[in-house]
Structure formats: structure tokens, C-alpha cells
Amino acid sequence: MYIILKNLGLKQLGSFEWLKIYTTSRLLNFNITQGGNIYRGLKLKKGYGFTYAKSLGMASFLSWFEMILILSTTAILLVTLNQNLILFGINTLYFISTLLILIIILPFSGKYILNRLHSKNEKILWIYGRLTDLMGSIVNCTKNYRFLAKISFLSIFSLFILNLQLFIFFKALSIHLNFAQIALFTSLTMVISIVNITPSNIGIAELLYGFLSQSLGQPLSAGIVASGVLRILMFFVTAIFAGILFIIKNNTYHSQSSKQH
After folding, report:
1. Rounded Cα gap, residues 30 and 157, in angstroms
2. Distance between the two ends of the chain, CA-based, in angstroms?
3. Which one, 27, 68, 154, 258, has least CB within 10 Å?
4. CA dihedral 75, 83, 102, 189 (to 10 degrees)
5. Is residue 202 included in any domain, yes or no?
């Protein structure tokens, strides 16, 4: 996301300042639905003049692009490891491939449809203008190939790290899954982090993990416990990182104050 902000012209935002904003927004998402996104938008608007429309466009593009990378990487893993994996009576590879195609064409088809709509109603025109800007910002970002390459590398690297983490995590809980099955849990974990319905999708994530676990031949309770433990670990890691940033900021403030005196 920091790379996207730089690409959109927010040159004055330092990496340390962004880490503070990002970490705080992650902590807020654990407690308030979309709280992190609202906080991030307010901080960027107040501190750097970054408009809410740009913040929304940035978040929408990142969510759209990450969904594509997550689904495409999962599809490749399924092709390599298990093309015939069935969940709830549906071939997982076919389902993910269909969903991937629909998500890829969404902003382009949305922009095409919006450009052909005509209305004189002011409220509809306002909504039309916001949606057009949103779809346009997503489409425009896809034209910068160097920028896309950076985002792709970082997202795929994050996906690989999460895959490895979940592999170790499930092994520690004595839940035996193959790599294709772990790839599904990885995809689910990343999609849950993008689309928030409750604070950090508490309750929803546990149910989805439980149903996925059950469909893969594991107990329903195993998935629910795994999701709960993973949530606690993620919260503590984020909180510890936030504490480290607070200490660094506090020490920097005191050293600057002592120099002035």
C-alpha cells in the first residue's frame, strides 16, 4: 500500500510515519469494522492532503489486485498439486477459475456500463461520478506495468510466507493437511483480511475455517480452534510491533527535546 501511495504522488509520506498509520489501522480493524480504513483515510487527508476519493481508490485497487493474485496463485497450486479437489460437491479449481475471471473483468465492465448510463437526477449523478472515478482509478493503475510488477512480487512473497506460516501452524496443532489444502486456507485467510464484515471478521472467519476444515476431512472444531489461535497470534504480533514503534517514537521525541534544551 505504501508503494501505491508513492505512485499516486504522496512523496512526502515517510516510511516510519506510514508504519505507524498502518499498524494503528490494523489494531483498529481488530475492534471496529472498517475502523482501520477510516482512520487511515483521515490521517492521510489531515496530514498530507490525500483526498478520501484517492484513499478509497487506492484501497479498492489493492483489494481487487490482491484478490486476483490470491486466486490465480491458488489455481496454479491446485493445477500442480490436486486438480480434482472437491469442496461441497464442487470442483475447487473450476470454481476459483470462474471467480477469478469475474473479478478480473469487474472494473473494466463496470467502467464500460457506467460510461453508457445517462441520468438527470442529481443524487444518481453524484453516485455515478464517484463510481466512475473509482473504476477509472483501478483501470488507470493497471497501465503502469513497473508498478504492477512491484505489487505482484510483494503480494506473491506475502502469500508464500503465509503459506509457510500456516503449514508450520497446522503441524503444531497436529492438523495434517497437504499443500493444496493449505493453499485453500491461505487464500481464505487473505480474502478474509481484505473483506471485513465484522471487526476483523470475528466469528465469520472461525465458521469459514471450521466448514473448510470439515469439508477437507478434518473436525469442524479443528478449523474453529485454528482460526481462533491464529487471530490471537496476529493480534499480539501487531500489538508488540505497535509497542516497538511507540517506544521508538517516544525515544526520538525525548532526544530531540534534550537537544533543544
Report:
1. 24
2. 38
3. 258
4. -50
5. yes
- Read off the pLDDT of each residue in 41-64 and give the average, rounded to a whole number: 76
Residue partners of 70: CB distance under 8 A and separation at least 6 = 155, 159, 187, 190, 191
| Nearest alpha-carbon partner for 100 in 124, 57, 67 | 67
The structural domain count of the chain equals 1
The strand pairing partners of 87, in sequence order, are: 90
Q: Is residue 260 part of a domain?
A: no
pLDDT digits (tens, 9 = 90+) for 18-35: 778 878 888 888 777 777
Q: What is the mean pLDDT of the chain?
A: 77
Quick check: pTM over 0.85?
no
> What pLDDT does 10 receive?
64
Confidence (pLDDT) at 138:
59
What DSSP designation does 177 have? -
> How confident is the model over 154-207, as pLDDT tens digits?
778 888 888 888 888 888 878 888 887 888 888 877 777 777 788 878 888 888
Residue 261 lies in a domain: no
DSSP element (H, E) containing 237: helix 220-260
Long-range contacts of 87-93 (CB under 8 A, 24+ apart): 87/184, 87/212, 87/215, 87/216, 88/215, 92/184
For 144, phi then psi, to 5°, come to -95, 95
166 lies in which domain range? 2-255
Compute, in degrees rounded to 10, the torsion defined by CA atoms 16, 143, 139, 22.
Answer: -10
- The rounded distance, in Å, linking the Cα atoms of 142 and 135 is 11
